[in-house]
Amino acid sequence: MSGQQRPRNTQQRRSQRVNREKKARGASMVGTRFEVEVGNIAHGGFCIARVPVGDDTRVVFVRHSLPGETAVIEITEGTEGDRFWRADAVEILTASADRVEAPCAVAGPGLCGGCDFQHVKPAAQRALKTAVVREQLLRIAKLDPADPLVANLVVEDCSGGDRELKRGLRWRTRTTFVGLPGAPGRKGLRKYRSNDVIEVDDCLITAPATADDSGLVTRTVEASAGTRDFQVASDGFWQVHPNAPRVLVDAVLEQLQPQPGEKALDLYAGVGLFAAYLAEAVGDGGKVVAIEGDAAAVQNAKRNLGMWRHASAVAGGVAEVLKEEYDEPFDLVVLDPPREGAKQAVVAQIVDRAPRAVSYVACDPAALARDVALFAEMGYRLTALRAFDLFPMTHHVECVAQFTRRDVS
Ligand SMILES: C[S@@+](CC[C@H](N)C(=O)[O-])C[C@H]1O[C@@H](n2cnc3c(N)ncnc32)[C@H](O)[C@@H]1O
After folding, report:
1. Most-buried pick from 222, 331, 338, 407 (CB within 10 A)?
2. 81 pairs with which residues across the strands?
3. Does the record carry S-adenosyl-L-methionine as a key word (predicted)?
4. Which atom of ligand 1 is nearest to the CA of 271?
């Protein structure tokens, strides 16, 4: 379509707008190479580098690199006018002592987008994640670097001594493969920030026996507070790392210290993992309410909590159910929201119930940091923090944060 032609439909209008914006941002930088010194790790699995552009510098988010390395990077996204570019490290000139040969043959520039840290020793991966969690808490939640919760934070190894898990391999109990276009029967995974698929016959972070995809599956959790079975839809939410349920239940119970007779909320409850352990601990003089948005998960939570009359599972959005059905005090709250975090409305609802302790299971440290700031504004201090390496080889990290009302010692 020429510049003079009027766009005929929304798609053409959008593509005209995108072209105009691209022109304003200058020529594409994709494919351009620079030699850089790689700086700190950032949230998202890349390191920060800067390249000179005229009198200015440009920030570049570099994958497949490590802090302190010198490397040749190749720009993968960005135009001359953009404030930052994305790049892959395509040649390492001075390697970090933390660098290893990636165990996976499809990890690396332009290949599978599933892992970020295949080229990093497992212990060093945890150190990178520790740095990211700290940085988010300092920058977003404005915590003091000298605060022992920040200064002493260490992302914990969750392999439990298993040889493959210790190497960061064979931990994913669920992986969604996609069909390889034009090759029936062959499968793959998507490239980084792309819809292109790369063939992956054997994903090394995927556990050998993954769930089949029909009906219910039984998951057994052996936590310190006892062994329990849970019914989960095979396509429903369940913690992906085999040790995650145990590790998270132990951390949450350690933070909440539930007592007989107490009232507890399990928010974003899934099939009632935390609610079940809380129900046992508070006993029939107490009360546990699990709130979950996914109807199938709620049906399974009802089954999983069925043996306790003082425990119930309720379907609906957390903010709405709390407001409409549970506008009453609770002693304890555990929440495990999706990546975007709990946000203002839910934090305010939690604080309104005046719990003596809150345990917050967070899969995104930036969202956690935003919610730490909200809790602080509303009178709840961050009083304990643990972080777990439940997603080895990727930049993801799980945190469990305890908040305590300021007037509770
Ligand atoms: C990270 S999972 C946690 C599940 C559970 N705590 C567990 O460990 O198995 C988050 C859950 O929140 C649910 N969810 C997401 N947004 C919600 C909302 N606004 N209200 C209620 N549940 C929600 C999802 O369906 C999902 O089951």
Report:
1. 331
2. none
3. yes
4. 9
Q: Any idea where the domains of the chain sit in the sequence?
A: 10-99, 135-169+211-405
Amino acid at 94: T
Q: Judge contact between 157 and 122, C-beta under 8 A.
A: yes
**Residue whose C-alpha is closest to residue 274's, from 352, 356, 359:** 359
pTM greater than the 0.90 cutoff:
yes
**Beta carbon of 339 within 6 Å of any ligand 1 atom:** no
Q: Is the CB of residue 270 below 6 angstroms from any atom belonging to ligand 1?
A: yes
CB of 297 sitting under 6 A from ligand 1: yes
The predicted-structure confidence for 166-217, as pLDDT tens digits, reads as follows 999 999 998 989 999 888 999 999 999 999 999 999 999 999 865 555 588 9
Q: Please give the ipTM for the structure prediction.
A: 0.99
Cα 19 to Cα 27, 85, 103: the distances in Å are: 11, 18, 41
> Relative to the CA of 238, which ligand 1 atom is closest?
9
DSSP state, residue 307:
T
Phi-psi region of 21 (alpha: psi -120 to 50; beta: other; left: phi over 0): alpha
Q: Kindly indicate the confidence band of residue 2, based on its pLDDT and cuts at 50, 70 and 90.
A: very low
Determine whether the shortest distance from the Cβ of 237 to ligand 1 is under 6 A: yes
Say which CATH superfamily domain 135-169+211-405 falls into. Vaccinia Virus protein VP39 (3.40.50.150)
To test the pocket of ligand 1, the residue of 268, 300, 326, 388 to mutate (highest count of ligand atoms within 8 Å of its CB) is 268
Name every residue whose Cβ is closer than 8 Å to that of residue 160 and which is 6 or more positions away in sequence.
Answer: 243
Determine the CATH number of domain 10-99. 2.40.50.140
